[in-house]
Every structure is written in C-alpha cells, then in structure tokens.
Design brief:
heterodimer; A: mainly alpha; globular; B: mainly alpha; Four Helix Bundle (Hemerythrin (Met), subunit A); about 70% helix
C-alpha cells in the first residue's frame, strides 16, 4: 500500500480517431422508448429482467409451498409443479441473470467505465433490447396457451421434453420456449458484439486494457464467452424445434410411448446434452464473471484499498473463461459416457478451482487491514464471498465422478447451484444496484430499508439452502413434487422442508422491501452528489449526475492511472480518480 | 461514422513488428486492433460467433452420421445428375461451388474498385456478386426440388438413415439463408455505392450515421465467410 506513491504520470498518446457523431433523439419516443442511449437501454433491460425475475420468484414460492406442505394446495398438480420448476430455472438463468448482468450492467457501465460516449453501434444496441423484450413476451405467452408452458425441466432434455407425457410437450409450450430462446440469442448477439467492440476499440485516451476496472473485465470476458457458447444452444434449439415440428430425429431415438411406436428413430439424446452443456457450463461463468468483476470493485472502493493482485485478477477471469469451455461434460457423469471422459472432465473441472481460489484469496487480501466501510454494497459483497466459497466447496464434491454419481439428481445438487450461481450472483446484483443507484438516479437508496433487505436476504438464503444440502445427502431426489410417504426418507425431512418453505417466503417478501426502496428513494432518497462513495472509476467523474447523453460533456476524460488508487499517501483526498493527473498536488507533499 | 482506417496510418507505422507489435497494441490505450474500424471489428467477431454455429451444426451432423445403425445414403449417387443418359456424380454441386467461389472473386474486385472510388465499377461488381449468389440459391432450390421429388424428407428418405434428409435440409437451408441475406445486403450497399452515398456523406436510413467505402469491404468479409462455410459443407456433406 505504501509504494503506490503517485509519481509523474506517463504521457498519454494523442487521440487515434476523431469523435463520432452521436445520434440525438428528436422526441419523447426516441429519447425514452426507442432510445439509442446505452444508459436508457440498460434501464430497459434491467426493468424487463427484474419484472420477469419476479415471475420466477413467485414460481419458486409455489414450488416451495408444494414441497413444504404437500397436498395442501390443490391447484399445484404434479404437471403444474414441473412447469413451475422449468420456467423458474429458465427465467432465472437466462432472462434474469444473463440479461441483467450483460444487458443491464454491461450497457450502463461499459461506456461509462471505459470513457466512451456510447456503445459503438447504438442502433444495433437498441434492436438488441427490443428483440430481448420480444423473447420475454414469447416466453410469457407460453403461460397462456393450451397445455401451458413446457414442464420438462430447464435443461430441456429430449426425448421426454417433446413427448405427450410432459406438460407442454405436445402443446405449444415447448415451441414457444424454443422460439423465445432463439430470439434471445439473436438479440443478445447484437448487444454482445457491441459490448466487445466497445471494450476493444472504443476506449478513451489513456485507458489501456490493464487499467480497466475489473467490472469491465468481468463483463467483457463473459460477453466473449456468451458469443461463443450461445451458438451451441441456438443449434440445439433449432434442431429440437425441427424434431418437434417437422418430425426429424436429431435427438429422438426409436421409442414406444403408451404402447405406441413413435415415428422417430436413430437420433441421439446425448448429442443434445453435449450441445446444451457446451452452452450451459460457460453460462454459469457468464453469470459469475461479471459478478466477480463487480464485487472486486465494490470491495476495493468500500475498503478504501487497492485491489490485491490486479493482474492476477484479470488473468484469473480470462483463465476461468477459457477453462469453462472444456468442462461441460461434468454435468453428464451419469449420462453414460466413457469413464475416461469422466476422468478428463473431472480433472479440468477441478483445475478451475485454482483461478477461482486466486480470486477469493485476493478479495480477502484486499480486505486485510483495509478501511472497511460496512455500507450496504459492502455487506452484499462480503456476503457474496462467503456464499460463493460455500457453493464452490460443494462444487468440489460434485466435480468428482465418484462423489457425483450418488449425489446426482438429489437436492444436494439443487442446493449447490443455487448457492453458487443463484444466491451469490444475486447478492452481487443487489450490491451493485445499491452501489450504482446514486449514479443512475442522483439519489441514495434508503439505508434502513437496505439493512433490513440485506440481513433478511443473507440469513434467509442460508436458511433456505443450507438445510437443503442435508435433504439431498439423505437421498431426496430433485424434481419430485411430493416425497412424503417414501420409505427411505426420514420423517424429519418433511419438517426441514416446511422450514425451508417458510424461509423462502420470508426472503421473497423481503425483496418487496427492496423494490419499494427502489421507487421510494427515486423521490425521497438523500441527494447523492456526483461521487458519494469517493470512487476512482470514470463513471463517478461525469459532469452531470445522472450522466447526460454522451456521458462526459464536451471533452472525453483522459486516463492517467488504474482504477484502484485508494488511500494514496500524499494525495489530498484518500483516492485519485482515474482521470486525475495527480501532478503538482501529489508532488508537493512528496 | 467519421472514424477511418486510412487517415491514421502514420501513427500505426511507428509501432514495432511481429509479436512485440501485438503485445504493444494490446497494452496500448484506445484500441486493441490499430487501424481496424468498429464496423470491421464487429463483423469479425460476429463471424467468429457464426463459425461456432456452423461448427455445431456440422459436428451434430457428423455425430448423427457416425452413430447411425442404418446405412447412410451414397452421396455421389444421391447428388448425381443424369445428363444425356449418363449419370454424372456431383455435377450440380460442382457448378454451384464454382458459381459461389467465382462470386468471391467479383466481391474482392468490388472492394478494390470501391477503395479506388470507382463507384459504378464497384456497384456493378457487387451486382454481379449478388447475381451469382442468387444463382447459387436458385440452383440449391433446384437441388431441393429434385431430392424432394425423389422422396427425401426431413423425416425419412428411400435410401437409408433418416438423419440424412434432416441434416441436409437443415444445414444447406441455414447456409442458403446466409447467402440470401448476403444478396439482400449486397443490393442495399450496391445502391448506396451507385448513388454516391459514401462520397456525399449521406446518412443511413436507420442508423443515421454516415457510411464510407469500407462498408463494401465489411460486406465482403461476410460474403467470403459464407463461401468458406460452403467449402466445409461441400467437403463434409458431398465428398464424405
């Protein structure tokens, strides 16, 4: 910490390209609805994602009601339960987490943090949102078609997903799901190309890649991964759509259903699993890497300390991104693969623990002897570290073939992935919203409501998912609407299930406090000023708050330093902003 | 878009060569790829993503073909044509491939003429490219018609594994869609070049940005990619 004395800044190269003309809106419609401004698009993305996420939240309540008190609620039939579980999973993973991290935070933060006026192709960026909205509407439509949405599980495994025994399998449910996914991928690609090109080619003077905040690194790497992983899902969806609509047999083997020989034959369900998980595993890190990046910035800012091992943090993000493409079949240990494949994929899976551990140690070392401010964003960031380590440790169990085989398809798996890619990224999302809300609206979120929201969410999440590990360890399978009366499952599991359900309902309602806070503070929140957290990154240095169209006024900022000059000895305040040349002030005291 | 690749070449020439140059570029500010405009970078990254789509399609097809228990139809018979009573294997495909590869040639010439600001020549060459692309799609339609009339369906065919028809229609259809989209965009850009939009700084209808002759090259990138994909489809589908 002592050897970051600000010396003379290196000269910044001249601008390589003249400034690009911005599109200026002419009417209310082009300013707020069909807006090409990345900040407005970000808010549209976030609003849509949170809205559809609330649907998924309600679905999780319904599932928990059924599991906690089986037989009490008549309207939750086994078919409905399967539909809830499928839609809950798909919405949360794709339409909430992916859209919110990349479409929401990506759009808002990338141009501001790298010092750009907007994304490189604002028009394409706008299309991205509208196609995403269309995808969401198609998904919602599946709730209202005869037969309802698909109920085959969010992994959409064939052959059962398109058979008549599965809810929505022979109706429109599965068709709408596949169409919605295809639309999502098209829309995402438009946005994703923008994020990647903006980071690579649209930075301001002095902003080198190794001076970018880790938030941008996380979102950037996740976007690159998404551009390479979503194609596999796209192809799988197209092929399954043909299987369902045209009667092709890409994924459908010859089979007999209800005593009747179906016309399918020769297809490979395992092929679908490979395609799905070639997308699905990178998807985990598409959600996790932006969270890693954001949490690094939150910790550094709120502990008033430079991030420990910035370079290693960057390389860890890149390494995790690369490795995540060669681990997909660890989701398929029980699918009937050659054992050598299991060995290979277990090895690569466990290797990911190394860069991940580097990140966790570096977060902890950033905190060590820091000036920790327990603000709401910091609380969420700390909660993330704990939760992520917890979820990661059970990942070590499941990554090993011999341990995974008995645990596969139990509630243990459910508990694991909810901890690691459900609760952990959501905690970061909350932290990030508390952190950047002042920049977006100009007002702080209410602290008391924030504390209430944080503690209920954090403790509640553990109350839900910690017992779930034990439920899984005694052998309760996942995706069963009712396991009461099963001989091998002890009575106590029912009690635990009821407890989990109550906890889930409470946590769910705590989110309403958060939502209320979002709207309440818009009007009544404390005025934030331009840089309430005294943070170094460029988005806090804008002339206006909220940032105006074009972000930075007349002149784009020039970057002289990395994003983590906190508690700098000799500096007037305890931080130096990225666009602060430091010069005479620092020199005088040095 | 006022940003150009040409205007700042002097700045870029001061950079070191080879690996050191790459390292210098990536550790520099503003742009990782010096002298690459936003549009071109975006097209390259899109093509990388699209490569994964075609890669997944082709790998799925290969998996289906290798794991099937029923015989796969013989490509040189199925795709043969009878000319004057003689069966010529792969005749149509050979012509189609020739047409598409030729269109890459006219596209490359259009790019060159565009940078020389020979508007008419560039536009005419693009129209020729579009015509060759349309011919390719037309011949593909003919091939589909022929196969369908012989009883090939996505769910079955007279000669063997039913995945044959499914994979064939899906992959060639997806590629044909790419060609068709390319033809449409070729026509749009040819019109802009012909009218001199890139000289007068006319704003785009949707994007309201000024274009430049680089659009022709970016269009060319897409077109060559579609050609390259066809080479792989040709190799894996017709020659295997």
């Amino acid at each position: 910490m002592v050897d970051v004395t600000p010396g003379a800044v290196a000269p910044v190269p001249p601008a390589e390209v003249p400034e690009v003309e911005l599109y200026h809106p002419h009417s209310w419609w082009t300013k707020y609805v069909f807006s090409q401004d990345a900040k407005v698009i970000a808010i549209q993305y976030s609003g849509t994602a949170i809205a559809i996420g609330l649907v998924a939240l309600v679905l999780s309540w319904l599932m928990r009601l059924q599991l906690g008190f089986p037989g009490t609620f008549d309207f939750i039939t086994p078919e409905a339960y399967y539909q809830f579980i499928t839609m809950h999973g798909m919405i949360m993973v794709i339409y909430l987490l992916t859209a919110l991290f990349l479409g929401g935070f990506g759009n808002y933060l990338i141009p501001l943090m790298v010092g750009a006026r907007d994304m490189v192709f604002p028009y394409v960026n706008m299309l991205s949102y509208w196609i995403y909205l269309l995808a969401v509407l198609v998904l919602v439509a599946s709730f209202f078609v005869p037969g309802g949405p698909t109920g085959g599980g969010w992994t959409l495994y064939p052959p059962q997903i398109i058979l008549s025994g599965t809810p929505g399998g022979q109706g429109a449910g599965i068709i709408l799901m596949l169409v919605s996914l295809i639309l999502f991928i098209i829309g995402f690609t438009m946005g994703g190309l923008n994020y990647v090109v903006t980071v690579l080619q649209g930075r301001t003077r002095g902003m080198t890649l190794m001076r970018m905040p880790l938030t941008v690194w996380g979102i950037f790497t996740a976007t690159v991964m998404a551009l390479l992983a979503f194609p596999a899902l796209f192809v799988a969806c197209v092929m399954m759509l043909f299987d369902r609509l045209l009667g092709t047999s890409f994924f459908m083997p010859a089979l007999v259903e209800m005593g009747e020989q179906l016309s399918y034959g020769g297809g490979s369900p395992i092929l679908f699993q490979h395609l799905f998980w070639f997308f699905g595993h990178p998807e985990v890190y598409i959600v996790a890497l932006p969270a890693f990046g954001i949490v690094s910035d939150l910790i550094s800012t709120h502990a008033r300390k430079n991030i420990f091992g910035y370079r290693m943090m960057v390389w860890a993000i890149v390494a995790i991104g690369a490795l995540s493409f060669i681990v997909w079949a660890h989701h398929m240990y029980v699918s009937g693969m050659h054992p050598y494949f299991g060995f290979f994929f277990a090895t690569t899976t466990l290797i990911i623990a190394i860069p991940t551990a580097i990140k966790v140690y570096n977060w902890v070392l950033t905190l060590w002897r820091g000036d920790i401010h327990l603000t709401i964003p910091m609380l969420f960031a700390l909660a993330f570290i704990v939760t992520f380590v917890n979820g990661g440790l059970t990942g070590l169990f499941l990554g090993n073939v011999v341990v995974d085989v008995p645990l596969s398809d139990t509630m243990f798996v459910v508990a694991h992935f909810h901890m690691v890619m459900g609760v952990a990224p959501i905690l970061v999302i909350f932290g990030a919203i508390y952190h950047w809300y002042p920049k977006i609206t100009g007002r702080m979120l209410d602290e008391t409501m924030g504390q209430l929201h944080f503690w209920i969410t954090f403790i509640g999440a553990y109350a839900i998912f910690f017992p779930m590990h034990y439920v899984g360890l005694v052998g309760v399978p996942r995706r069963y609407p009712d396991i009461s009366g099963t001989a091998f499952i002890p009575e106590s599991v029912s009690t635990l299930n009821a407890f989990i359900t109550v906890a889930a309902l409470i946590v769910g309602f705590a989110q309403m406090v958060f939502l209320f806070n979002l709207f309440w503070s818009l009007r009544f929140g404390r005025e934030a000023g331009g840089n309430p957290w005294r943070a170094t990154t460029l988005e806090w240095q804008t002339p206006e708050t909220p940032p105006a169209h074009g972000n930075f006024g007349k002149e784009l900022p020039i970057v002289y330093r990395w994003a983590y000059d906190y508690s700098v000895p000799g500096a007037k305040e305890d931080f130096l902003a990225q666009n602060d040349p430091g010069g005479p002030r620092a020199a005088a005291s040095a | 878009m006022a940003e150009t690749t040409m205007a700042h070449a002097a700045h870029a020439t001061a950079r070191p060569d080879g690996l050191k140059g790459i390292a210098a570029d990536w550790s520099s500010d503003q742009r990782a790829f010096k002298n690459v405009s936003w549009g071109k970078a975006m097209m390259w990254i899109f093509l990388l993503s699209d490569t994964f789509i075609f890669g997944c399609f082709l790998l799925s097809y290969m998996t289906a073909r290798m794991s099937t228990t029923v015989p796969w139809p013989n490509a040189s018979e199925v795709f043969g044509l009878h000319v004057g009573g003689v069966s010529v294997p792969l005749l149509l495909i050979a012509i189609m491939t020739f047409v598409l590869i030729s269109s890459s040639g006219t596209m490359a010439m259009a790019v060159m003429q565009g940078y020389k600001k020979n508007r008419k020549a560039s536009a005419i060459l693009m129209l020729a490219t579009a015509a060759l692309g349309a011919t390719f799609v037309g011949m593909q339609a003919f091939e589909w018609t022929k196969l369908i009339s012989e009883g090939v369906r996505p769910w079955g065919n007279p000669w063997g594994a039913e995945q044959f028809g499914a994979a064939f229609f899906m992959i060639t259809g997806f590629h044909g869609t790419h060609v068709t989209i390319g033809v449409i965009f070729l026509l749009i850009i040819a019109r802009k070049v012909w009218r001199g939009d890139y000289d007068t700084g006319q704003r785009g209808f949707f994007t309201s940005r000024r274009g430049q002759y680089e659009s022709v090259e970016i269009m060319g990138l897409y077109w060559h990619f579609v050609d390259l994909v066809w080479v792989f489809i040709f190799a894996f589908f017709y020659l295997w």
